[in-house]
Structures are given as C-alpha cells and as structure tokens.
Amino acid sequence: MEELKGFWWIPKQKKNKLYGTLKLENEQIILTTEDYKFNKKSFNQNLNYYDIIIGESINGKKITLLDCREFNYNSTFGHGTTKKIFVDKAIVGKQFNKKDSVKFRNFKIHFDLLDEFVWMNGFKQKFRKKGKTMLNLTYKFPKEKKIKINNFELIITFSLNGPTMSRVTKEQVATQKIFLQIKSIKNMNLNEIYQIKDALRTLLSFATQKSILEDDFYGIEEKIINKTKIPEEIKIYDRNIVKKGKNYEGIIPDNFLFNFHDFGRKYSLMFKKWFSLHDKIKSIIPSYNALIYSKDTYLEYHFLGLIHSIEGLYRILINKNYMNTKKYEKEIAEKLISAIPQTINKNHKESLKSKIKYGYEYSLRKRLTEMYQDYCNKLGLDFNSVKSDIGKIIDTRNYLVHQDNSLKSKASTGNELLRLTYQLKKIMEFIILKEMGFDKDKLKDLLNRYYQNKLI
Fold first, then answer.
1. Which of 363, 373, 381, 434 is the most buried (most CB within 10 A)?
2. Do 255 and 158 fall into the same domain?
3. What is the helix (H) or strand (E) element at residue 376, kind and residue range?
C-alpha cells in the first residue's frame, strides 16, 4: 500500500479538515493526523470510533476510510496534537459519505496461490538453433471461464503486466496475473461482497491446504468517456490485504488437495455446489483451517478439534438420528426427565436434562461407523481393516476429554495418534469433496495423490 499524504475530514465537516498521512505500520492501516479538530459529537465518545473518514491526497486521489478507531494521541505544547487511528478498510479512488452507500456491482480479487490453482497461462516459446539462434516468446490471453452462480457471474480472468521497453534493453519481463471477477445483477454492499470473497478464499485454502490471503482487491465502476463505457478500478485495502503473505514459491498444483483442472468439464457445477455448501458449513471451516495451518499446536488438540468439526459436519450434511425428534421428546424425553429424582440439586438436574435433550442423536461411534463405511465403499477399501480404528478414536477422545485413568491404557499416543488424526482429516475432506460433486474415481485419485507421502 502506498503512503498517502493529504487532508481528512468527517462527512459534512470538511471545514474541520486536517492534514495527515495514511500508511502501513506493522501490517496495520494507520492514519496519523497532525492536529485534533474532529467534532466529538460525530462519533461514539466512549470508543472514539468513526464509521467513515473522508480524505483527498495531495495528488488528488479520493479516499474513504471505514471503521476507524483511535488508539493513540500525543499532545506537545506549541506543536498541536498528533493522533493515530486504526483503519479497518481503505477505499482509494472514491469518496462515500455513508457506510451503507458503499456498494459495487462488480469487483475483482487476486489471492495467494490463485495462479497455481487455476494453472493456465498464455505464454508460448519457441527456441531454434539452426543458423541464427532465435527465441520467439508470444502471449495470447487464455479464454475466460464464466460461471453463473445465483444472482452473480464468476469470471476467471487474466491480466498481463509488461513487457517494458527502453533505449538500452537488457531484459524483457512480462507477468501474467489471474483474477476472480464478480459481476452481479445488482449493487452489493460490503457485507455481501465479503461473503462472496470469503467463500472464494475458503475454497482456495481448502484446495491448497495453505493459509490464503488476498493481495489485490478492486471495486469496479463504469464511467463514460466520449460516449464509451470505461471500467474504473477502485482499490480496496483491508487488514488481510496489507498483511505480508507467505512465500509460496516452488509450490506446484499437483501437491494441492485439488486444483481447477481436477474439476474437468464440471467446473461450473462444482463452483455452484461449493457456494451452496459453504453457506452450510462456514461455521465449521474456520476451526478446520485453524487446525490445519497451526503447525505448533499440540497433536491432541488437532485430534479433538477434528472430532468436533467432523461431528458438526455430520449434523449439517447427514444428520441421521435414532428416532424422530418430536417423537423422542413426547415418548421418551418427557418420561426420562420426570424420572429424575427431586432430591438432587438444581444444577445437577439441569445437567441431566441437557443430556436427555439430545438423546435422539446418533452416538459418536455410530456416526463414525457410518462415515467410515461410506468412505470405504466409495474408495473400494475393506471396512473391516479400519473398523478397529473407530474404537481407538472413541477411547482416545473419551480419555482426553474426561481424563478417566481407566481409559489411559486404551488411548492412542505418538505415531498412532498422528495416524488416527490424519484419518479423521481425510474422512472430513472426503465428505466435503463428495458434496462438491467429485465422483468416486476422482475422490480416490485426489486423496491418494495428496496423501501418498503421508502417514496413514
């Protein structure tokens, strides 16, 4: 993010504008002002919070800052006040007077590893060494991929930067960059835009098994020049974009759980299914991602976290039970609750009632058995060869949760616990990939390819 010096003010208070600098400090967007003239009545007095601050840089750029919070000021006698403000989002290219007026119909975004995931480029080179040595390098923009999803269109599009020319040329550099562009049938507010962005980022994280950040994010508007519509890109910065991404040089698409080419001709259908699936499991995916990307977390925590995630996944996507909920409540639960002795204390009674409430649900053992059976059937494996692992998972989970010493000898540790943890992760990924629309042959291919060098 470039450093932007200019004047800043709160909407409808331009006369109180003050000079300041917007820049990155420790991976945070910080506005530093050199005086203090903001009207206290225009924001929350307790939190010193601003919905919007408007700015204009000294080189004429229109700027909107969103969700701004003061965190430091320094007053020096004779030199005024220096104030620092955290900025959650910065929009460079347009000024908005209200937060709810920040809307775009189109936007485009680039993520870490998006180019590797899509795995397409327009470069072709020919090298000939007959007579004179010749190198012929050409570029043709690849065909865009367009996918209609609900009320918007997702487009995989390509941009090319360079080559540059000079009077003394020593090298030629041309860089292709792939973007995901969204074209909606209506204006979208930031919440709607970020929901789409989050679904795309989560898909890439799941596919690559890496922590993914976005590094380019633009709202797109059309302006008319000489009766011709010209797209105008408005840069959007937020806390994720300004963070330093990891160095993923040398990573190849074959090492991902899956890449765009694995979708085959069904890529449009699979993107649609992903957006539908993401709406259902978005509460589970963050905990899964946190476990996968936290390399320093204790193995026991990974194990328990995966069990928690996989139970949630079962409830959302499969949700089989011993009996109908209403029937259970009427015929079973009421009788069990009425049988609770009145002599026990209130807290104990409430604890028993909460356990009875969900008595219609399958046990963890039953759920794991169903998931393992489906997994083995689809991948052509012998269920009996992994059946004993279900008991090991249950015993280990119960020991870690309840710390029951009678289960300590049955609980898995070390490499055995690592193997079971990988198995749980693999089962969870199998369920998600199946819901995305991969057939059984492709499921087997993907999981075998990704886990071929891992302990299972």
1. 434
2. yes
3. helix 364-379
Instruction: Tell me: cis bond preceding 11? Omega within 30 of 0 counts.
Output: no
> How high is the pLDDT of residue 243?
65
The answer to whether residues 273 and 310 belong to one domain is: no
| Segment holding 389, helix H or strand E | helix 387-402
CATH (domain of 8): 2.40.10
d(CA 37, CA 34) in angstroms, rounded, equals 10
Domains held by the chain: number: 3
Query: pLDDT: is 22 or 47 the higher one?
Result: 22
Residues 83 and 224 occupy one common structural domain = no
Is residue 141 within 8 Å of 158, Cβ to Cβ?
Answer: yes
Q: Say which DSSP state 378 is in.
A: H
Tens of pLDDT, residues 383-401: 998 999 999 999 999 999 9
Structure tokens at 441: 């042959």
Of the candidates 228, 258, 279, which is a domain's last residue? 279
Find where tokens 């963890």 sit.
Answer: 364
Q: 25 is in which domain, residue-wise? A: 4-97
Domain assignment present for residue 141? The answer is yes
Q: Are 49 and 68 in contact (CB under 8 A)?
A: yes
* Better-predicted residue by pLDDT, 243 or 124: 124
Q: DSSP character for 245? A: P
> Are the beta carbons of 248 and 120 closer than 8 angstroms?
no
Residue 10: exposure state from Cβ atoms within 10 A (0-12, 13-18, ≥19): buried
Residue 45 has pLDDT above 80, yes or no: no
Instruction: Give me the helix-helix angle, 364-379 and 387-402, nearest 10°.
Output: 150
d(CA 200, CA 405): 45
Phi and psi torsions of 323, nearest 5°: -160, 165
One domain for residues 263 and 294: no
For residues 10-21, average pLDDT: 89
| Co-location of 170 and 189 in the same domain | yes
Using the predicted structure, report yes or no on whether residue 37 has a pLDDT greater than 70: no
Q: How confident is the model at residue 23 (pLDDT cuts 50, 70, 90)?
A: very high
Give the model's confidence band at 80: pLDDT under 50 very low, under 70 low, under 90 confident, else very high. low
87: left (phi over 0), alpha (psi -120 to 50) or beta: beta
Would you state the pLDDT for residue 73? 74
As a whole number of angstroms, the distance between CA 40 and CA 49 comes to: 10
Q: Please list, in sequence order, all residues whose beta carbon lies within 8 angstroms of the beta carbon of residue 234, skipping any fewer than 6 positions away.
A: 91, 92, 93, 94, 104, 218, 219, 220, 221
Across the chain, mean pLDDT equals 89
